[in-house]
Specification:
Layout lengths: L1 E8 L5 E8 L8 E6 L4 E8 L2
Antiparallel strand pairs: 1-2, 1-4, 3-4
């Protein structure tokens, strides 16, 4: 059971990336450091609803 998710920048709050994850195996929210083109720097991104 895979669900769609979006990754939003924690600095500016914009949704920059989309993806999916297995809801049964990964129960905690995803938090990764990715590039935000609006902030123009690498910042932490957290999982949000699509």
């Amino acid at each position: 059971m895979r669900t769609l998710l979006a990754l939003a920048c924690e600095v500016c709050g914009r949704k920059n990336y989309t993806g999916s994850k297995n809801k049964t195996k990964a129960t905690e929210k995803i938090r990764v450091k990715k590039y935000c083109r609006f902030c123009r720097k690498h910042s932490p991104h957290k999982e949000t609803k699509v």
